[in-house]
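Researcher: Good morning. I'm working through a list of sequences from a screen, and I'd like to move beyond sequence-only analysis. For each chain I'm collecting a predicted structure so we can compare shapes side by side. This is the next one on the list. No need for commentary yet; just the structure.
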Amino acid sequence: MYPELEKVGGLQSAIDLEFEKLNSILRVANGTELENIPLTYARIENGQKFSQVYIGAEEKLYLPDFWRDGVCLAHGQTKSITELVQMLDFWLCNDITTKELNNKFSFVTPNNEANAFDENKEVEYTWNYILQDNSRAEIHDFIKLAIKDEVLSKLFPFTSLYTLCFSRCTGYPYDSDDLPNVTPKQFENFAPTKNQSSFTQQDTEKLERQFVVTKNKDEYLGIGNAETALKIVKENLPDNVEPARKGTAVH
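Model: Good morning. C-alpha cells for this chain:
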C-alpha cells in the first residue's frame, strides 16, 4: 500500500524528501530507537512542539498527532504524504492554534481539551472535567472543595488510576514528585495503624467517604473526609508552590 515509502527506504526518508521539496527547516528526529522502525514511525520536533506519524495497517493512511507543551491536542489522517508534510510544517513552524490548523486542514481533528489549552484555560478546564466525569465519582467530594481553594485550584490536576495528583505544569511529564496526592480509601492499600490517632472508630464506619493523603503514593500523610483531606494536603504543600505553568517537568 505504500510504494512511495519502500522506494526511498521508509517513512522517515519519505517525509524528509517532502520537507526538502517545501524548503522546510524541519527534518525527522534521529535516534537509535527511531532508526529501528523507519518504515512505520517518524517523529518531528520544533521547540515545544512535536508530531508523531504512524501508518495505517488495513488501509493506506498517514496518521499524525500534534503535541504542544507536553499535551496531545489533535490527530489527523490523510492518504497523501505531500498533504501530511504540509500540515506538519504548518503546525510546527507557526504560532497557531489547533483551530487554525483544523481550518486549513479539515482532516485534522482537535481533541476535546484543545480549545482550553489554546486559550490558556487548561487548569480550570481539567478541574471541571474531572468533576463532571462519572467514572471518577469517588473523588468528587474532594474535588468540590479543592476547586474552590485559592492555592490548590491553581495547580494542574490529573489522575493516576484512582489517585488524584497535582502538578506545577500542565504538560507531561508532570512536575508532581514533592506534592501530595489523594486517593479514595476504598482504592487505597494503606492500612492505618494504632499510631495514627486521626483514624477513629467513626472513620472506620465511614471508609467509603474517606480519603487517604500520601506523597509519591508511598509516604502516608493522613486520612479523613473531604474537608480533613484538603487540610492535610494544604499543610503538606511546599512553601514555593505557584500556579501551574505551561510546559513539562523537563521544559
